[in-house]
Amino acid sequence: MTYLETVAQFYSEVAQTPEVGLCCIQSTPLQLPGLKIPLPMQEMNYACGTTVHTNELVNQPTVLYVGVGGGLEALQFAYFSRRPGAIIAIEPVEAMREAAARNLEIAAQENPWFDTSFVKICPGDALNLPVTDASVDVLAQNCLFNIFEPADLTRALKEAYRVLKPGGRLQMSDPITTRSIPKHLQQDKRLRALCLSGALTYQEHTQLIINAGFGQIEIRARRPYRLLDKQTYNLEENILLESLDSVSFKVDMPEDGACIFTGKTAIYAGTQTFFDDAAEHILQRGIAVAVCDKTAAKLAALKPTEIMVTGSTWYYDAGWCC
Ligand SMILES: C[S@@+](CC[C@H](N)C(=O)[O-])C[C@H]1O[C@@H](n2cnc3c(N)ncnc32)[C@H](O)[C@@H]1O
After folding, report:
1. In the chain, which end has fewer C-beta atoms inside a 10 angstrom radius, N or C?
2. Could you please report the per-residue DSSP string of 281-304?
């Protein structure tokens, strides 16, 4: 079996016999006023973070949700886009499509605002999306892309870029690793299916998103979530996995490279009322301004004694650079 076949078989099994807290820590799913999440859907929460960023889901966006699982995040997105076909859920595993459809039926009984027509579940594959170019506002995937080997991940990211409208957003939540995972674990197909051995480092992960063409990346959350300990996994050192929630924008690539926002700010502390770097960054004296990592480094180098640059908070959702 190829690793993709192993993945499909694995998710077929856990669609038919749900495993609570299967691949990631158990966390409380995002709660929203008037949203009731059916119990079987909660039991099939096979995720480690969230892709549903509530403060920007205005104007009923069309969302392509890849790897539907039990349908939890599809339902959460539907909460914001209450119209037929607003959420297109792609899932290659038949048993998972059936489970998601069952769970969404229950959701319709428990939530007066929800109609199953809001989520269209389609057979399909992240590596070959059955969707036309530039047709969706948001593409979301949670704990799927880390499973892919790098060549397939590159293809999945290119597919995401293709189907997003200009300005569209790729909303991802995936494990990343603080150190490279050794080959013997990377090649373990079942561990890969479990989201335990396919994770890339933060640098590798963000570089592949940039390589696909995304000109801006925002890190929404980064937190430790699981340890691969040396005894269980036959390692020289323990390896910490972190969960990373990010939003990447299909915007033009800046000439000097992608903007990555990790929560850094720049604060002008010189003698003038403001500082203008003549590159569209104006800092009012004493006021913290959100900057991408590239701009943070440039400003710090330009005026090391007058501009204070604060560190990455790994939380940023403030929109554009100053
Ligand atoms: C770890 S689960 C995550 C499910 C869901 N996103 C959630 O947050 O609970 C991965 C999902 O991706 C699906 N999947 C597996 N291979 C896929 C592929 N090549 N393309 C799209 N989805 C795939 C699995 O069947 C499963 O539903």
Report:
1. N
2. -EEEBT--EE--HHHHHHHHHH-T
